Structure formats: structure tokens, C-alpha cells
Amino acid sequence: MEAVQAVRGMNDILPEQVGWWQGIESAAREVLENFGYREMRTPVAEKLELFARGIGESTDIVEKEMYAFQDRNGDWLALRPEATASIVRSYVQHKLHADSGHCKFYQIGPMFRHERPQKGRYRQFHQIDAEVFGLDGPMIDAEMMHMLDVLLERIGISGVTLNINSLGCAKCRQVYREALKSFLVEKGDGFCGDCMRRRETNPLRVFDCKVQRCGELLESAPRLIDYICDDCRAHFDAVKDGLEKLGTRYAVNPRIVRGLDYYMRTTFEVITDRLGSQNAIGGGGRYDGLVRDLGGPDVPAVGFAMGMERLVLLLEQEKGRPVRLPRCFFASLGEKAGQSAFLLAQQFRGQGIETEIDYEGRSLKSQMRRADKSGARYVLILGEDELARREIQLRDMLTKTQRIVPLENILETLLAVDSEK
Ligand code: AMP
How far, in Å, CA of 157 to CA of 307, rounded? Predict the structure, then answer.
């Protein structure tokens, strides 16, 4: 019978890769909590309407990529394509804004977009997401990008570039939209069908177009950064000044518009030149109007999302596979010795020592072979003779030395030799 395969673009993370994931997750928790963020876990499915309102009807994500479906009651739901809208929904629903001052949240988990899968782009992928509500000053924007920098360093990723831009506010964008529209009209039919449509519905989205010809034509398009008002410019200057004071390197890139409608003022992207076309590792920005648009109070907000698969790809390129090795392996001979070894192994584990054991009463030779293959530093060998003498053999696989230890003392002995190394 033919075996069932996983859904295209949705990957298993196998034990041999999971070390990367655990390392990234624990670094993220450590760094984010250190900067005052608290974890939040929202459901993977939400009402479709949340994303349509929160991300924007005319974005690629909502128009083309969403896993939307009707459940058995006929309600329209969607698997979350990103975390921000869900976090805003939760923040508003639970009135977390009433707690006073600003709030910082983070979330780590799977997102779903029906994109064409390729290396670095999947249909289920994972993000580390952080959001701050209630602060409109430039310092938090700078601090957030600095935190990203700290996080990447803590994960062990180097050689990435932080690109920043300002999208201005609704006021400056209105003026810019008209200028961009005139440019698109002037260029006429050179653009693809999608872009022609965007020209009418949401001209800024033309910058998301992946068609090469459109990209070339856009090289000479007016730049939003040249249209921003005095307040927005002062904000942007202060963000840059903050980054410089924090020692976080950046480049201003006027082409960063981000794929979602809700961004304003500060936007940023962290990119690498080592992942081919899927070069964005993470990105984010300010979205002051979204909480209000989703029915909450008028609080400013800023956030980012980082893609974990791409972090893993970079780590694999830089460092090869992570290996997780047990410290100890119990090998035994005979039924009684096997039972004693089994109980001792549980005691070792109780002390936090990663321990493996043979469960099948195989020959000593084959157990030693498994012990060697497991990569365990210490092998403990218990035969009927040793058991009768209340002793056990302790073999150090690194130094290739072996000694006999009284059974009563084996745990203390192992803890002692292990702490010496
Ligand atoms: P976005 O929400 O589109 O700004 O994405 C934020 C980050 O998530 C990107 O920089 C990528 O690292 C990652 N990402 C987005 N879409 C995908 C995908 N389909 N597969 C893998 N990673 C993704």
C-alpha cells in the first residue's frame, strides 16, 4: 500500500535538525524576556475577517496565499499567515491595554501561506514575532532593531544587513500615492497585469511584485522617503541616531515598503546574501493605526517577525549539524545485571544526566558497538560477576581508560569525574 506523504511545503523537523530549533527558540526566549517581552500563544486559526481587516484585502497574503476554509458550521476561518493581527486581536479582546503604560509581547510558532514552495519558502513555516503597544517614540523602534541584532548574534548568525526606511504617515502617503500613480500611468503598459490592477487599488503594492521587468521599471519610480513630512522625518532621524548610539549598523534602503498595508513610519528588514532569492530573514515596522482599525483603542504599535527556517538554513551552512549526545550508556550482561542497570539508569536521569541503555539483552559486543555509536562519553558495564561483587566498570570513551567503582558510589563518582572535565 502506498504510504501517505506530508502536505507539499509543510515539513517535518526531524530529530537530527531539532537541535537548531531548540537553540534558536531558547536564544529567542532569553533575549526577548531580557528586553521585557512576555510570551503570548494565540490559536493557529482565527476568523478570516481578522486577517482581511488586519493585513489588508488587496495584499498578496490575503488575496492569494491564505489558507481560508469554512468549518462545519459554515464559519469562515483562516490559518494564520502571520502573528501580528492575532496578537492585536488578543490584546484588544482581553483589554491588556488597561494594565497601564506599554505592553511588550512575543510569540513563537507556525504560520501558513499558500506560496510556491522552494528553498527557504514553505507553506507552513515558523516565526519569532515581537510586538510593542503603547509607545510612539523613536527609541523603541531603535531598541527593537538593536534587539534583533543581539538575538542574531546570540543565535550565532553573522554577515546580515539591517535595512531601514520610513513609509511616512497617512498624510505623507496620500501625496506620495498620487506621485506614484502618475509615474505608473506614465510608464503605461510596461508593467504586468497584477501591477496594472494594483495601480488602481493599492499602488504601493507594486513594490512587492516579483516580475523582473516591473522591478526594473520601478528603479526610476519616485521614492516615498522623499515625500515624508517634517514630523515623520524627525522621527526617522531620531531612529537612526538611536541605532548609532546603540552601535547597531544599518543601511537606509528607500525600496523597503513591506508586504502589508498597515505599516507606517519606521520599516526594516534584515537580509542576507547567502540564501539566494529568499534573502529576507526578518522584518517589521511601525503600525500605529492597526489596533484602532481592529476595534481597539488608538494606541501606537511596532513589531517584527523573523523566519526560523531561514535561520536554520544559515546555521546549517555555517556550522553543520548540531549533535546531542548522551553522557552515559549502560551495558549489561545477564538478566539480574540488566535489571540493576535499568534502575541505575533511572537514577542517573533523575540527576539530570542524559543516559541511554540497552533494553533488549543483546550480546555485550553489540551493546558496546551501540554505546560507541551513541557518542556517549561514559559507558557503564555491569555483568553478573560485577553485580555479585557490588561493583561496576566505568569506561571513559574519550580517554579510553576503564576502572572499577563500587556500585554504591557510581553516581557520585560519575558526577565528580564529569565535573572535572
Ligand atoms: P513577513 O511576515 O512576510 O514580513 O515575513 C517575515 C519573515 O518570515 C521573513 O523575513 C522570512 O524570514 C519569513 N517567511 C515569510 N514567509 C515565509 C515562507 N513562506 N517560508 C519561510 N519563511 C517565511
Answer: 13
The CB of 255 under 6 Å from ligand 1? The reply is no
* Residue 342: inside a domain: yes
Residue 225 lies in a domain: no
Tell whether 335 and 314 lie within a shared domain: no
Say what the pLDDT of residue 421 is. 61
What's the residue count for the chain? Answer: 421
Task: Classify residue 172: in a domain, yes or no.
Answer: no
Rounded distance, CA 329 to CA 359, Å? 11
Q: Is 80 exceeded by the pLDDT of residue 322?
A: no
Q: pLDDT band at 258, cuts 50/70/90?
A: low
Return d(Cα 127, Cα 165) in angstroms, integer.
Answer: 22
Interval between CA 418 and ligand 1 midpoint (Å): 42
Q: How many CB atoms lie within 10 A of CB 161?
A: 15
Does ligand 1 lie within 6 Å of residue 289's CB atom? no
Q: Are residues 269 and 384 part of one domain?
A: no
Instruction: Read off the C-alpha cell for 396.
Output: 571513559
Q: How confident is the model at residue 351 (pLDDT cuts 50, 70, 90)?
A: very high
Nearest atom, ligand 1, residue 61 CA: 3
Residue 364's domain comprises: 328-419
pTM (2 d.p.): 0.86
Let me know whether 275 and 393 are in one domain: no
Q: What's the mean per-residue pLDDT of the chain?
A: 92
| Rounded distance between C-alpha atoms, residue 67 and residue 114, angstroms | 7
